[in-house]
Amino acid sequence: MILEWIKYMSLIQSAIIFNDKTKNFIFRKSLKSDKMKILLLGGTKDSINIIEFIKKNYDAYILTTTTTEYGAKLANEGGSDATIARPIPKDELIEIIKNENIDLLIDATHPFAKHITQTSTSIAKELKLHYMRFERPTNLENIDTSNVHYVNSFEDAGKLIAKEYSKGNVLHFAGANTMEDILKNVSTDRFYPRILKVEKSIEKCKQLNVNPNHIIPMNGAASTQENIDLIEKYDAKVMITKESGEIGGVINKIEAANAKDIAIVMIQRPQIEGLNKNDIVSNLDELDAKLKNFF
Questions:
Q1: What does the DSSP 8-state code read for residue 212?
Q2: Once rounded to an integer, what is the mean pLDDT over residues 132-142?
Q3: For 223-237, how does the pLDDT look when each residue is reduced to its tens digit (9 = 90+)?
């Protein structure tokens, strides 16, 4: 019994490691050191697909970083060996890479997480670390985009709506962190954001005086019909979204807007300075082709 307890405590200690310098708890499932070590910058559906693919096809150790506990939970469920659930500054990320002896850095963050991608590319260059950027495709080639109006920023989106769509309600399908720039030019009286009902997002709505009755709970990407239902329910005349690709539900939003003949104001993806196009992969087949160089 005593021997079994010692083995159990040893397992627990090896599964949860606290780095005093970076103040990170790293939750592990395994500590095998003979595997290739991958640091995955995640928090997206793409990153979960990558974890599942690598775990199915390769013998690799994956440490995934996300900005939320929810993202870390999904990464763990997908098969990640370890997770860190909080934003990590550049200097701490470098220390983690060194301490964990990371062999490959994969950036699968959101297409609009420009700062993170710029940081990851600079770290890879600085440490001479193998690097890949998973850039989801837009897949809009065969989609009717006649109702789509492209802008370069959320503030520009608000200005366009104030000028061209001054009447009717506005559906905001672009996250809580982007609302402030929209509301510089759009009244909260006709603003209906769809957000994850987590404390941070709800607090953001309170700070911006968004009517609680206008908040639409979000549970993953909505189908075309679900988007149509929301357009009808809230009598929307315009929808705001990001150019986040099919996996982000953009095609369903466009199809719903087309069905109800309303406008979509779409914020274009930011251009990432310092990102080498040879480091970009857009699907799992392309990822696989590059991974074969390491195994």
A1: G
A2: 83
A3: 999 999 999 999 999
User: Is 158 in the same domain as 249?
Assistant: yes
Whole domain around residue 82: which residue ranges? Answer: 2-137+272-291
Distance CA 90, CA 207 (A): 29
10 versus 59: the higher-pLDDT residue is 59
What is the four-CA torsion angle of 111, 117, 121, 124, rounded to 10 degrees? -110
Q: List CB contacts of 4: < 8 A, sequence separation 6 or more.
A: none
Dihedral angle sign, alpha carbons of residues 286, 43, 76, 18: positive
Question: What single letter denotes the amino acid at residue 1?
Answer: M
Distance between CA atoms of 39 and 103, rounded to whole angstroms?
Answer: 8
Structure tokens at 94: 């470098």
Domain membership flag for residue 111: yes
User: Does residue 252 belong to any structural domain of this protein?
Assistant: yes
Q: Domain count for the chain, please give it.
A: 2
